[in-house]
Design goal:
Largest sheet: 6 strands, mixed
Strand content: 25-35%
Radius of gyration: 25 Å
Number of strands: 21
Distance between the termini: 28 Å
Bound molecules: adenosine-5'-triphosphate
CATH topology of the largest domain: Rossmann fold
CATH superfamily of the largest domain: P-loop containing nucleotide triphosphate hydrolases
Shape: globular
Structural class: alpha+beta
């Protein structure tokens, strides 16, 4: 195994540029997740890596072997790229038993030694399917079929394993099981992987690094922790769960919401010099609900709001509140608020509090305004966002 490099990859369909001069490096043994909304070019990027699409430009190299592009205009066919693939639709051969499905990549590559030395059985055991080898796919549950597909993807010990939304056809319980299994297999076997998803929890759970795509380009390429703590842009923040958004305007004494509540942005406040408007983003879990301003802890920012809707969510209520026309969601502890909140009519005045350190700030161009006190600025880490 070795480093996989994608340089300036461009793929068009007709006049639409779907992958736009994309640079991406996958270190040996690294699990990279391509994350982004529908249509941003994730699957097309994966298919270019697999050799299933012919790009219009750029280079793809696996170690020192050029798979696409380069001075010799290489375009190595898919079956010669030494990759494993796991698809959303499982894509098992219905007329073949599990044993033959898993063995398929070894047969195509004529890896007779592996076939003889029990690689198929070992791969099936790895995904707890050792007892299913003589069944047909139609005799398996969805979760079992996808585990067989994972075994098939790994059996030939490929340089790179490509996963295209492999969990999205499974119900929630199976999805968690198969996700954990993929995670454990990666930790044990250390294969390099590119995993496409639009599910942020899947991405956070599996990725060594997350490549967040927008319009065929990388918006941020960093560790899950870093993306969670310091989303590079408003687009990334919204996509990874910072759904709450407040438009703020600079006043003589600091930043204020449209209804006049003051928010101290502390070290994330942009310098003067033309920046008069910013967007603040927050996670639902970072907002607290109170009935009166006196309940707000010291050091927190206070917003005046009204209740819009309340839904029971078990330990908490999901509450939608209105701050002068801007809607925020938050989770209110059932033990603390269960006695009054479910019957509070729409329009009930409440107070919402937040800690300034939980606020992330974005300029009018959409890019993050970094914490001026942080030694590590957004985009400073090795291989960081691709701006
Ligand atoms: N063969 C094709 N011909 C024309 N357009 C295509 C083709 N394949 C993909 N596209 C278009 O390219 C864009 C990106 O598709 P792609 O499947 O890469 O997105 P994605 O980020 O993986 O989205 P999803 O999560 O919905 O699969 C879409 O607008 C899609 O309609």
């Amino acid at each position: 195994m070795s480093q996989i490099r994608v340089d300036q990859l461009t793929k068009r369909f007709g006049s639409n540029t779907i992958v736009d001069e994309l640079d991406l490096t996958i270190e040996e043994g690294e699990f990279v997740v391509l994350l982004g909304p529908s249509g941003c070019g994730k699957t097309t990027t994966l298919r270019c890596l697999a050799g299933l699409e012919s790009p219009e430009g750029g280079t793809i190299s696996f170690g020192d072997k050029v798979m696409y592009g380069g001075p010799k205009h290489a375009d190595v066919p898919s079956h010669k790229r030494n990759i494993g693939m796991v698809f959303q639709s499982y894509a098992l051969w219905p007329h073949m038993k599990v044993r033959d499905n898993i063995a398929y990549p070894l047969k195509v590559r004529r890896q007779k030694d592996a076939l003889r030395s029990g690689a198929v059985e070992k791969a099936a055991e790895m995904v707890d399917c050792g007892a299913l080898l003589d069944r047909y796919p139609s005799q398996l549950s969805g979760g079992q079929q996808q585990r067989v597909a994972v075994a098939r993807g790994l059996v030939s010990e490929p340089d790179l394993v490509l996963f295209d939304e492999p969990l999205s056809n499974l119900d929630a319980r199976l999805r968690d099981q198969v996700r954990t299994q993929i995670h454990q297999l990666h930790q044990r076997l250390g294969f390099s992987a590119v995993f496409v998803t639009h599910d942020q929890s899947e991405a956070f759970a599996l990725g060594d690094r997350l490549a967040i795509m927008k319009g065929g380009k990388l918006e941020q390429f960093e560790t899950p922790q870093r993306v969670f703590d310091e989303p590079a842009s408003d687009y990334v923040a919204a996509f990874i769960g910072m759904g709450n958004k407040l438009e703020l305007t600079r006043h003589a004494d600091g930043w204020r919401t449209s209804n006049g509540d003051r928010i101290d942005l502390g070290t994330r406040s942009p310098e003067r010099g033309g920046v008069e408007k910013v967007t603040a983003r927050l996670r639902a879990a970072d907002l607290r609900l109170h009935r009166a301003a006196e309940e707000v802890p010291q050091g927190s920012v206070l917003l005046h709001a009204t209740v819009v809707t309340t839904e029971f969510g078990g330990r908490h209520h999901d509450v939608l509140v209105d701050v002068d026309g801007e809607k925020l969601t938050l989770q209110a502890d059932t033990r603390e608020h269960g006695s009054w909140l479910p019957t509070a009519p729409e329009g009930t005045p409440v107070v919402v509090s937040l800690r300034p350190s939980d606020v992330r700030v974005f300029g009018e161009d959409g890019w993050a305004i970094a914490d001026s006190q942080s030694p590590l600025q957004v985009g400073d880490t090795a291989g960081a966002n691709a701006r």
